[in-house]
């Protein structure tokens, strides 16, 4: 019998002394990225994706943007010491099985993020090398690319560049499949365990190329005819992180993330005058619900 039953009138009706302390093994993931005030990309897209896929998401803000579906009107970086404090505060209490990085903005933020993630020994790190927004705004200072390659990519389990980002990281122009393969090889040489060169910027089928240093694996997908593509890269990398947090292996996580993104694109709605976001609350394909159910 709880204390309130023994001492009526002396306890709040909100007393929880008789509620059992139930510990549920909830998958945990962290996103380290910028805020999108329009809610379509960045931290907002990542947290929506984590929630949709049954993962508790924590967040570390690196920058605040004023943006909508048309433009990025302003950007303010979060001070380095605040970025560090966010990582340490979450890691020491909640923790995370898998982490993704998105918009990191500056060389110093990249260096500090890399330092703290290495110190905490995060099992899985997915790097989405965000450089330019859908509307064309620069989200990574040009002088920060070297820091990304030198300090962060060697820690990455998976890196997910699109074609323009792969060209910058690899230092070559991509015009065909051979160029994609060469870019993947060069990016792999920078340190990540797996490279996923996304095919969304190419004409024809939406084929992503996965390279693990030994084998190339094309992952084919449906090209959805929609302008609602804001936040696709953020959503894809966040979905990979969510599936890794569930305990799924990397290749399966990448494949399921592509299926989730396709569903989110297929059921998207226009909310603004430009590129609207995907639908993070889309009904999940059966192969995703089955995979998550097995891990639980």
- Rg, rounded, reads 20 Å
- The first-level CATH class name of the domain at 27-162 and 231-295: Alpha Beta
Helix content: 25-40%
**Full CATH superfamily name of the domain at 27-162 and 231-295:** Ribokinase
**What distance separates the N and C termini?**
33 Å
The geometry reads as globular
Strand content: 15-25%
State mean pLDDT (0 to 100 scale).
91
If classified by CATH, what would the architecture of the domain at 27-162 and 231-295 be?
Answer: 3-Layer(aba) Sandwich
Broad structural category: alpha/beta
Strand order within the widest sheet? 3-2-1-4-5-6-7-8-9
The major pleated sheet works out as:
9 strands, mixed
In the predicted model, the low-confidence regions spanning at least 5 consecutive residues are 1-14
DSSP helical segment count: 10
Compressed to H and E, one letter per element, the order equals: HEHEEHEHEHEHHEEEHHH
Number of strands: 9
Question: According to CATH, what is the topology of the domain at 27-162 and 231-295?
Answer: UDP-N-acetylmuramoyl-L-alanine:D-glutamate ligase
